[in-house]
Amino acid sequence: MLHRIADVIEDRALELTVLGVRDNGTEFNMALKAEAGSAAGTFRYYAEAVDKIYGEVAPTPDNVLGLVHREPVGVVGAIVPWNFPLMIGAWKLAPALAAGNSVVLKPAETASLSLLKLAEYCMEAGLPDGVLNVVTGQGSVAGEALALSMDVDVLVFTGSGATGRRLLEYSARSNLKRVYLELGGKSPNVVFADAPDLEKAAQVSAMGIFRNSGQVCVAGSRLLVESSIHDEFVAALSRHAGALKVGDPLDLQSQVGAINSLGQLEGNLGFVADATAQGADVALGGGRILESTGGYYMEPTVLTGVRPDNRVFQEEVFGPVLAVTAFESDEDAITLANATDYGLAAGVWTGNLGRAHRMVRDIRAGIVHVNTYGGSDNTVPLGGVKQSGNGHDKSLHAIDKYLDLKTAWIQL
């Protein structure tokens, strides 16, 4: 069944991608790969994982047989965001279905088209009625009802910390359902002077924050640069960022698409205004562009001289705004990297193998990229620490969220 769903997603990839782009403004070329392409791959991964789910035999005395069974939890509630609804929806749906559950999925208010269409495709593929339900509506209405439902056994969510806290409260007020949260990030991207290719590091780091207009939970939104190369590296990154074509997300020449909404754009611009008021300098961008089109577009923006106490250093912008801070030593870099409430992702650029391993060990994050940024696939988990949430999407570990353990203790 999961393979058939993947087949349909691949067959209808163009339609799904255009629907999603019309909703959220992601540039088409990225969306085709990250949305439909990723979703099909995720369903295939968990189709192949189905026969990897099995129980255990405990090391009991000879007169006892101890078995540990894994059973579906029952009903899974899933609430997903607007930035990559199909990709993140598949991260929730595929392992939940593979584990044998039914799912009620609520898309974001501003990005539901691709997931509604996916529900139709799942019916076409033969998924029984009621196994997958896509319910639209405001978070304060439909999302709250789902979280308070006494019939939902597990709730999974990707989105803001404020909403995540409310979902935990709703669990306590209802049936104590398990709640798994993938929340925001303020991910550090740490560049040392001994990075093997500074030009490549600059180019990849630019895309690590500016793809999808920075509307990516793992975006490398804090650039920490060793002071000896600070000016040189910022200039190189700004050159790559400034060359990106921002525009209509359905134009195949666009490399960066639109901001999701006017409110999101105004919030982004507010972060820039606050940063400059607190002493930061604008090295690139900083403003709204293409306003005459009627769309919400913003220049890739690079802020230098950002201090750890600045709001743009501490809070998630979720837009094309990069905060740059210089550091002097390994210890300084680690302190700065960990100096936020978040712990979702990080990047490290260095040619020193020992330093790379020390940074992976000491930076508190769910994933640490070394000499790259982004690109991890379904073979590894994605999740955070601290206020970036709990639980993991992707990999075989994701299936654990959707299973209960049952012990059989049999006297022989």
Helix content: 25-40%
- Structural class by SSE content: alpha/beta
Question: Distance between the terminal alpha carbons, to the nearest Å?
Answer: 39 Å
Number of strands: 17
Q: Enumerate how many helices there are, as a single number.
A: 13
| Mean pLDDT across all amino acids | 97
Give the name of the CATH architecture of the largest domain: 3-Layer(aba) Sandwich
**Number of self-contained structural domains:** 2
What sort of overall outline do the alpha carbons produce when their principal axes are compared? globular
Unreliable stretches: none
CATH class placement of the largest domain: Alpha Beta
Strand order of the largest sheet: 10-13-14-9-8-15-16
Order of helices and strands: HHHEEEHEHEHEHEEHEHHEEEEHEHEHEE
List keywords for this structure.
13 helices; 2 domains; 7-stranded mixed β-sheet; single chain; globular; alpha/beta; about 400 residues; 5-stranded parallel β-sheet; Aldehyde Dehydrogenase, Chain A, domain 2; Aldehyde Dehydrogenase, Chain A, domain 1
